[in-house]
Design brief:
Helix content: 25-40%
Strand content: 15-25%
Distance between the termini: 29 Å
Number of strands: 14
Largest sheet: 9 strands, antiparallel
Length: about 550
Amino acid sequence: MPICNDSTEDLNKVKFSLESVALRQFPRILTQFCRDPNHNSYGCVDRNWWHYKIRDFPSIILQQAGLTISVANELSIFESYNLDHLVKSSLLFWNKRVLKFGSFEEYYPWEKGYPPLAFSTLSIMLLLNRINFKKEIILASAEKASRQLLNRFESKAANQQIAGLAALAWINKLYPGLISEKKFKKLAHRSLNLQDEEGWFYEYGGPDLGYLSVTIDCLWDLYDATHDENYLNAAIKGLKFISSIINWSGGGSIGMHNSRNTDYIVPYGISRFLSFEDELSEHSQIIMKKVFKGAEMNSHFFASIDDRYWCHYIGTSLFRSLEFFPRKKYEIKGNVTKKDFQIFKNAGYFWIKRRSSNLLISSNKGGILSSFDGKKKIYDFGWIIKNQNTQLVNHYWSSDWKRNFQNNKYYFQIDIEGNLITHKEIKINPLNHLVLRILSFCFGSLIIKFLKSKFIFKKGQNKNVFSRNIKIFQDKILIKDEIHINTLNILIRAPRSSKRHVASADNFHKEDFASQQILSEKKSLRNSKKCIIETEYYL
């Protein structure tokens, strides 16, 4: 049974919060569109290209906003605008770019990126299904997109792969016979295997609540196109995992504990379960209440989302969710369940309840620790060792971290050991961009693998070992860190910042500038190659 502190809750308040956010963001989304029918870029959503002219190509992934405004156009809360022509122009602009270049660009020209391919194609197909439009006009582009989607597989970012699969399903629904059934089934099997038995999908090696919620959105799109129960069952597993985590966090973002450091959760796929009459409705209600009640407040993560992501899947998900709130009173039935300890072994999450605080330790991120719900602000993201232009960090998701734990009546203890990750900040300049464009023109999508290996998928350095011993008592936390390194120059506490390049990470969060509640700190340098830091936090 799901854990819930309140037995009843009227989710109409949640709906009001989401409506308030949608009303506030709608003009900003429309601002991104080229709205002049006489402009040769009519329907383009990349303002940096058509208006500011600071980009030399339009980011096609932003065309998802066409679906967003189409949904808004049918919601009663919005003013009645004549948006039909703008909606169709966004579709036609996508079609024109695909026909002319056959590539899908997001960050640089001739990119042939998988995310812009998957998400833009999916939104266009969903849009086609909503409006009165001659589907034959888009057929050639649908064929080009489907060939790429059938022959590519994104194993490291499951949300992208599921979005691509959903795009294929909708292409097949709108253009029957265009997709090979045999190839689709094989791809579907591989895609669903990206889900862990705990319910989360692999995002750069681990769970990420933000991207998991995006995946649930796409699983519903798959189910709507195919009516295959396998997709619904996968969405259910994901829903239950998010619900479990949200019960522990109280609705707050787990941010740095996500594998890709996202701070958001999107509502559409979760809202679809509100109409269910069983336990699944409870899970959905819990998430919607805890995460999205008060979404209109400046303290909510929606307030920190930039224009790009409002045109990307976040805006689309929010607007679509408003169509699926049942017209009834919402009650959460069931008893309150209290737990003092819970492990998500595969995710590497250890949840411990102490006094008023729920503590989360991420063993796959070098033992970073945060408190939730308590009055004390406790978060410990480990350390950064700076040596000239090089940084060594521990808060980097890796399955290579070794861990051991014990739980007795006096304290919970976890020991974590692994190798530090080398990180270098890259300075962008005109020469970098020139070289990138030459390489992308010559090698297209092949350059993506190189860039990801350099900025995202890093391995620990064997000679730089980090170990962490955490003891959690009823009234305090003791952390002992040992750092073995060839040269120890500058040692600083790691801020709340992602060293893994993820576009949706590093939105502002109040933890960025909050003071840490450290009771005591003791550093000792045993020799030039070993440093021991003992830290005490008071609960």
